[in-house]
């Protein structure tokens, strides 16, 4: 009888244990977020240590907007994370190595490069034609939206500085409301600077002052990678199962702006647009979701991933770091406003993705040409020519 009573007590403990696990994971997430900010600050300080020669080399490698776009695509494909790329760009801008105008095309390129993950995820259905057609369409609709947004907004940025002007205006507004932003005087920035100064002291005490910049650069990138990976891992565990349920719950009520908001919130929660969009691919492949209903979730995920750059700007001293972070937000918001509210324009990426899915089923070689050509050959060729 006592054993039975003991067993009956166990289920009551499960909600408590689940709450404890969630609390621990959220606490770890905050810790890794702090390490992420330390990494951005280390990256910024390391870059600053290289001097003007390094600045000139960076400028020469992204001498025009198209080269900057290609660099953003390739960097994101290589590291498999637009969050890492945009955080690094924020660090470069914060260190004064890149002006905002040069960094904006790189951020656009990061938006394109991040779509390779869900495109690769669709290949898991390659042996089932009907499934693969829907899966590849679900993956490439993200590509087409970003490519079309770049095709419209990059020329406007080059000609009129559209995105930079809007982002600068918002950054000035934030500066008026929160004057300490960008001045390095906030308590958060002080808390970030202290560990970085410890790292600098440790490097100098080891007699490595001559390679201080390189060590700080390596430490910074390492912390950014590790922290974002761990944040994503912890939040994915917390949100496991809830993402699919949330998507299905929202879309069962009609999708639309609610689906866009769901994609935004879920991506902010897990700090990875790739997770959100890659979940959509098998759901569309299985026919659980239509491509039309999945599209707004993809747009929300696109916007949600901009939070990483905003967080990274907290660690930077230069106000320009906030400007480039807001430029990332501006680019995605403008893209959504151009295409989503208008039915005829909204159909363009959907139709292109559907036709690409049909072509991919008929000729599998198109898939390899599409992935390798768009994400590797094209950006490498542009950088080579530039």
Succession of helices and strands: HHHHHHHHHHHHHHHHHH
Major β-sheet annotation: none
Dominant shape: globular
| Secondary structure: number of strands | 0
Structural Rg: 22 Å
How much strand content do the residues show? Answer: under 5%
Mean pLDDT: 83
Unreliable stretches: 1-8
Can you give the helix content as a percent range? over 70%
Tally of DSSP helical segments: 18
- The structural domain count equals 1
Q: Structural class from helices and strands?
A: mainly alpha
Distance between the termini: 80 Å
Set out the fold topology:
Elements: H1 2-48, H2 52-61, H3 65-79, H4 82-94, H5 100-113, H6 116-121, H7 129-160, H8 162-177, H9 187-205, H10 212-239, H11 242-251, H12 257-270, H13 273-285, H14 291-304, H15 307-315, H16 319-339, H17 343-362, H18 365-385
Structure summarized in a few sentences:
The chain is mainly alpha-helical and 386 residues long. The protein has 18 helices and no strands.
Task: Provide a descriptive summary of the structure in words.
With 386 residues, the protein is an all-alpha fold. The protein has one domain (29-385). It has 18 helices and no strands. The longest helix is centred in the N-terminal third of the chain and has 47 residues, at 2-48. It starts with a helix and ends with a helix.
């Amino acid at each position: 009888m006592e054993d039975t009573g003991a067993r009956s007590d166990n289920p009551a403990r499960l909600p408590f244990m689940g709450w404890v696990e969630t609390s621990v994971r959220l606490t770890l997430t905050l810790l890794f977020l702090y390490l992420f900010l330390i990494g951005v600050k280390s990256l910024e300080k390391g870059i600053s240590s290289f001097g003007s020669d390094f600045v000139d080399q960076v400028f020469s490698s992204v001498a025009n907007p198209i080269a900057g776009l290609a660099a953003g695509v390739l960097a994101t494909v290589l590291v498999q994370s637009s969050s890492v790329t945009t955080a690094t760009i924020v660090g470069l801008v914060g260190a004064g190595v890149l002006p905002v105008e040069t960094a904006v095309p790189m951020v656009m390129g990061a938006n394109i490069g991040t779509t390779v993950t869900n495109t690769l995820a669709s290949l898991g259905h390659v042996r089932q034609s009907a499934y693969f057609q829907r899966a590849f369409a679900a993956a490439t609709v993200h590509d087409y939206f970003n490519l079309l947004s770049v095709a419209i907004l990059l020329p406007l940025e080059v000609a009129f500085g559209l995105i930079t002007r809007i982002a600068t205006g918002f950054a000035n507004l934030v500066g008026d409301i929160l004057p300490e932003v960008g001045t390095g005087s906030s308590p958060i920035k002080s808390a970030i600077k202290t560990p970085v100064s410890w790292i600098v002291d440790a490097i100098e005490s080891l007699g490595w002052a001559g390679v201080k910049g390189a060590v700080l650069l390596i430490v910074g990138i390492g912390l950014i990678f590790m922290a974002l990976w761990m944040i994503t891992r912890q939040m994915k565990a917390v949100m496991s199962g809830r993402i699919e349920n949330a998507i299905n719950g929202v879309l069962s009520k009609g999708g639309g702006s609610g689906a866009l908001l769901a994609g935004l919130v879920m991506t902010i929660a897990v700090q990875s647009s790739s997770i959100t969009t890659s979940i959509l691919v098998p759901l569309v492949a299985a026919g659980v979701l239509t491509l039309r209903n999945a599209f707004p979730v993809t747009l929300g995920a696109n916007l949600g991933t901009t939070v990483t750059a905003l967080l990274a700007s907290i660690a930077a001293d230069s106000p320009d770091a906030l400007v480039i972070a807001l430029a990332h937000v501006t680019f995605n918001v403008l893209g959504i406003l151009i295409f989503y509210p208008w039915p005829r324009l909204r159909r363009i990426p959907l139709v292109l993705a559907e036709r690409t899915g049909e072509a991919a089923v008929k000729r599998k070689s198109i898939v390899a040409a599409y992935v390798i050509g768009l994400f590797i050959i094209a950006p490498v060729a542009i950088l080579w020519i530039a």
